[in-house]
## 1
Amino acid sequence: MSALSIEGVTKSFGGVQALRGVTLSVEAGQRLVLLGPNGAGNTTLFHAISGNILASSGRVALFGEDITRLPPDARARRGLARTFQITNLLPSLSVLDNIRLALCGADRLTFRFFKGMASYRETTSRATRLLADWGLADAADRTVRNLSYGEQRQVEVVMAIAAAPRLLLLDEPTAGLSPAETLGLVDMVRKLPRDMTIVMIEHDMDVAFEIADRVAVMHRGELIAEGNEAEIRANKQVSDIYLGLE
Amino acid sequence: MARALAISAIVAVFLAAPFAAPSYYVGLLTKMLIYALFAMSLDLMIGYAGLASLGHAAFFGLGGYTMALLLMRAHASAWIAFPAGLVAATLGGAVFALLALRARGSYFLMITLALAQVVWGIAFGWRTLTGGDDGLPGIKRPVFLISFADQTPFYYLVATLVGLSALAMWAVTRSPYGLALRGIRDSETRMRAMGFNVWRHQFAAMAISAFFAGLAGCLFVYNNRFVSPDALHVVTSAEGLIMVIAGGAGTLFGPALGAGVIIFLEDFISSHTQRWLLVLGVIYVATTLFAPRGIVGLWTDFSTRKRKP
């Protein structure tokens, strides 16, 4: 079954057509990387999948269920998690609280008014374990605002996977990272459970092929190529775009 | 341990106050406690839910006026009028939320201000019901099993209710719901992406906040034995806002402290000059310039600097 199926999705902002009828399907457990230069429509497509913007036309389905018109939180409750191109965390809270809230969201521990967060031991121990698993144990009590940029990018990925999503969207998680940090993050993504379907936006071809089972290339709001590493590398149009020969 | 000691000391001071202080100061302390509750309720919205409002006097006044009208116009018992005031304030919070939560930031602030002015306008204009500018004088303090007419028993009633409310609000801020509110204050898109219905959380925050503001309003009316449109005035909202900012938004007890300081200063300065609002303005400017995170913020900076020289 398709984890994600996008059919003829368009999005216009006034006169600008950011998406011109994108059709794409991702099998459960597959890792798809969306390649494409800035402005190609990658992030807009992500927003249409996660509900941060609504598609002007077309259809988005998550594991066969039509989610085209659902708000972002309803999509999250159906097993979709994402990171943002521009780091989006809860900066005044501790790392532990960021993760605990991700778990609360996933477990529907909302509108609990009287019992203190501290007495939800199971949530806290799962959050602590997640941080330990991803090498962030020492950062647990630090305020997110005071972390380095690289650490913040890691925390955002951990927050997204804390909910054990069925579909994970990573919007350029390596953006702005040093080469060493990029390696760390790629390693992190590769270690994720194989049954988690992942769609990731990436500009760097080498990073893309490190992670991808399949690559799709966006250009000017359209999907221009799709395939495995060899097919994409051999594609004339793709190399033209990337080398700027158009 | 140190914290338990400090809390017991504070409780002891409030319990002993009527025995140690002249009755004028018991009255002043009563007023401080009522405004402390008002400021803490506003802090739930500003400091936790991230919704800066300039309409909080509406909930304060809705509670007070509903109770006063039932007492004076319908001759209802305090057992009915007092809870009815709380219900009216909470419903007011819900209605404000329905209308104002589509906007954020200064737009939200302006909508709450406009809505509160509508409530003020009704109280001011509907003379036959509310007495207009003259207000509703002659309200008697309640008899709940025993009479709370005298200053000392009334003080204990206020101190108990404010104490219990502070405890309840503190519990809410420590709960998963309270943590989620702080998350929403930091980033609504992040919280939505994790499955939180942001609107419902903020709606509940406004209703809870309005409930406690309404309680403060009812106690305020009982304290003065009188209510006038001043209770609903934008100056009341602004004072609440300044109490929160001066004390330290998002710390709950900071705004209570801010309320105490500002009510004390108001009392002290008003006995020397008519220009209290001018002084309040100066306090506001000084706070934003020199202590943007309020009294509590100053204290945390001071104590961390001492620990790490």
Note: The mean pLDDT of chain A is 92.
## 2
Amino acid sequence: MTATLTPPPATTTPPPPRRAPKDKQPFRHRLSRFDVKASPYIYIAPFFILFGLVGLFPLGYTFVVSLNKWNLLTGPAGFIGLDNYVAELNDPFFWNSLFNTVSIFLLSAIPQLVGAVLIAAVLDQNIRAKTFWRMSVLIPYVVTPVAVTLIFSSAFDEKYGLINNLLASFHLDPVMWKTETFPSHVAIATMVNWRWTGYNALILLAAMQAVPRDIYESAALDGAGAVRRFFSMTLPSIRPTMIFVIITATVGGLQIFTEPKLFNPTTATPGGPQRQYQTTVLYLWDLAFNRQNFGKASAVAWLLFLIIVLFGVLNFLVSRRIASTEARVSKRRMTKLLNDHNQQKTDRAAQGSLAVIAAAEEKRS
Amino acid sequence: MTATITRPRAEADPAAPQPKSRKPLGIDRRPGFLTYGLLIAFFIGGTYPLYWSFVAGSSPSSVLTDTWPPLLPGGLFWQNVGAVMDTVPFWMSLLNSVVVSAIITVSVVFFSTLAGYSFAKLKFRGREGLLVFVVATLAVPTQLGIIPLFMVMKQFGWTGSLGAVVVPTLVTAFGVFFMRQYLVDVIPEELIEAARVDGASMIATFWHVGIPAARPAMAILGLFTFMTAWTDYLWPLLVVPQNPTLQVALSQLQSAKYVDYSIVLAGAVLATIPLLVLFVLAGRQLVSGIMAGAVKG
Amino acid sequence: MKFSRRTKGLAAVASAAAFALLATGCSGGGSSTAAGSSTDPITLTVTTFNTMGYDDLYKQYEAAHPNITIKATNIDTGDNAKTDWQTKQAAGAGLPDVQAVEEGWLSAVMQVSDQFNDLSQYGANDIKDRWVDWKLKQATDSNGRIIGYGSDIGPEGLCYNSAAFAAAGLPTDRDAVATLFGGDNATWDDYFAVGQKYHAATGKAFYDQSGFLWNAMVNQQKEGYYKTDGSLNVDGNADLKALWGKLSTATTSGLSANQTAWDWGKGKAFTDGTFSTFVCPGWMLGVVKGQVTSAGGSAATGWDFANVFPGGAANWGGSFLTVPTQSKHPQEAADLAAFLTSADSEAAAFGVAGTFPSVTAAQTSPAVTGTNDLSTFFNNAPVGQILADRSKGVVAQYKGPDDSVIQSQVFGPSIQEIDSGKADGPTAWNNAITLLNQLVVNK
């Protein structure tokens, strides 16, 4: 599926190896030819071998396990075909976990994007001590998700937690951060947002800075104020990057584990007493390592895999559409100069939208 | 995209003579209080939770339930740190995290550069197809393979050893693709050709032409790989609970000291210090790495 | 050609490095030399949970055995300890030399009892008379192998806050309190009736949350979630359902403080009068003390311990010390486990954590019946004597393989529902049955 996205690699044909006279140094020559022929494969071999071992094989083997009754401790107990899949597709907990995952994702992606644009816009001004301020928004990023969760889970305690205490001192009702669905999603999304907003702001900042200054100047000459320039020029120009940020957040968000796992460690059911914030990966972990059901957990892994691939394809299609639409729109709206610039960016966005998924690896928590 | 390093526009250098006409337009005007007010607000928002953990981690745990948290740290930080050390093998787990992250980083950077170079600059049969495959594998979330990987690690008796943490991420599709995207633009064909004409073997060409050209991207990839490895939690939790990495140890601290949260927060602060130090040293590079669009658009 | 050789060399170095890494990794667990002479320095790892009161005993043992270093890990709750054990058991690595197992998930351990050493090979037969016989029976698998040494048992009494009782005009003397609840014939109806009185007088909750009460109610049945024949005993169980009705009625009328168990607002709920009674098996006394202390309270906070329990004798929890076959030093580990479960050790642990001994000789030891840190904390209550009384009539209830799943994942959500007022009693019961079918019956 990704095939179409790959830009034709700049085909640069290395010159054919110089032909040495055949009678001279035949062995050396053969070796050199071997070197030329084999080296490219040798260089890429480590990736493919390792990927086969830790990527493809597990995927295939997960499927095998999912077709069996398989206990964590006592091992396989019979082939049962697709029963595990049927059971999971009929299991309200599975759907509950998907709902929670998507809900937490939306609650983190949207505010994160808005916040990141705001921060980037502020940083994009001609401020003093640029590097200091840029670094300062990145501080949360160096706090690992585990530490973030430890810190926030204490602040979000329902009884006597920092936040509810503050609410109470303003005579507001306490919020049930850990036992009600929506508040718990907000709490978890807050942790994600805290850690990632500054990071994304820097990416958007880079995009904003890539907009040529002269465009702003000509717009300013035409009398466009700062706000207007922001909405009619800055935002459209960084749209591909915003899409990029969203896609990255999606794949990472669909695999969120650490935050819900450690949010309320005293609850016997991982993800809240009624599984209010049990995400799909946490559900998978609970199935496999608490409820000892490797078979069903494997089925969940495969279902989640399919969903992520689906999201990836959707993301790609949507972002390509937006990107091309934008290219048209900008053609109409922007000056030729900006247009050219954007065209370049849209191409890049289309090229890379799936590669972004990789960046999401980084967002795994 | 990803690898096309976006060059941020040249910073407005106040010392440099600016064309006069720019000033009145107000584009590079020094911003006012609102901007700095917002920046300070972001700064507080970003650092207060950490500061608050330090306050709580240096106080008796009863302050955690106070309505107004104290503004200044208490004097119990070292005592709480001592309790952290008694509860979890902090130094061992720190060392484990350093070892794991370092091995993964070196390996990912090296093999990704090698493969990326091959994809970008060498011609071989099936190159396009294989590259498409690499890109496609980006969509395979390795987290979902944990069940068979766990079983395999058990079968080979690797569970409990750091090797089990390291092996699954010794090279990543992202790294390969990233390096390929970077190298495809930065190495001129002529350079490779010249090296080959001089009789350099393929690997020597890579070593003398590829690596030097790839250095900036290698640094960025290394930085992010290190962060990823450092923050990983689910996989080490499964395979090395008794020989924990720092993240696992930290979560064990939480489950061991549920009644004494100031100790847990002291641990959270303590575990953040190494990265904070790294941040102070390499934060500039991290910022420019992110801004270079290295990891994203 | 020399270059291409270098290529290969590089690959060789890389793969050698990888192998070296794995090789060193393989042996990462430490030396696998056969259990050498008893003077070789060895490290024994121990995993416990809750508050087991072993810290001083470890030091004692290390002092007596200079070649042995003990590395202890403690986990907050039995549930989390179970997950930890399961993961390591499944990984085939990482289990400690001595693993504490809670009664609630002992049956899960019994599924793979061959993964635990038969302690009869390491001296169990010499000491097996030390335990109350039902404890020993629980630790014996279907093949007659003894896989665990009993540490404590969990006879339940009632903790109450005398300051809060005084404020509500209730008696504060522990004997009077016992009488108030009905003495030896105390019933749950009595308990809830006093609760209503307390609630009417103070407007405050009577107990922290419903889960521990429900636990006690189930544990004091002859048969709990499982019948003795191993079949499930929940759906259609009129006794349990009637108890659930009583509990949910009391809870929804305001007797529950809807606290998060094992968190209790970092202990603060124990010190600010949020609730005034608490279900206390012996080992819970140590937990209460820890909670109160961490929230800045002390003996003056007013917690006391009454020799009474609604609904008759009940046992909650209690643990076993096992030696997984993963242990490289089974003999030394078994010796340590034997030491930790000796009469003296169990009595000493009791003084710290309230873990009531399963060893008969320890139950009557002066260290248990006399005063200690714990009894001082509980207003000089003779906690040991009370627990000995409370243990009379306790019988071991059969625990099925999913007992802990039913307790935490099937009834846990329903308890939270009635505590928070999200559902009434009957609805919550039905929800529990649905969960039961989903998680246990059709798993």
Note: The longest helix of chain C spans residues 2-26.
